[in-house]
Amino acid sequence: MIRTDEKQAVKTSLFASKAPLEWAITHNGTLYTAQIPIDQSGAVVEGGIDAQTRQTLDNLVHTLECAGESLDSVLQVLIYVTDREYLATVNKLYAEYFNAPYPNRAAMVVAGLAREDMLVELVVYAAVKE
Hints:
Number of domains: 1
Low-confidence stretches: none
Structural class: alpha+beta
Oligomer: single chain
Number of helices: 2
Strand order of the largest sheet: 1-2-3-6-4-5
Largest sheet: 6 strands, mixed
Number of strands: 6
Shape: globular
């Protein structure tokens, strides 16, 4: 069981970043995570916005499962894309993963993300059982 009275890292099998970060943290019943389109080797997946969105959502599912949760626990999603035209693809795939009632969400078009070849990033807040 995850303790909710102090900050706890969620252990995943996602690529271990060299940056000072955790893929997810829980505190007081909330999971905080940011997900990007990388594979097990840490490489940004090829195949454009479709492949990157799927990988990002698959990484999210994995992270939630490691915390004992599912996509049904997601409360809010902040979507970052590097081109407005990508939002149609992200919306289509998002609807394949999430069920109603959908999480609250916002979408932002940004000039770029931390890794130049990334087209999408998700910041997610989810409820975790105490």
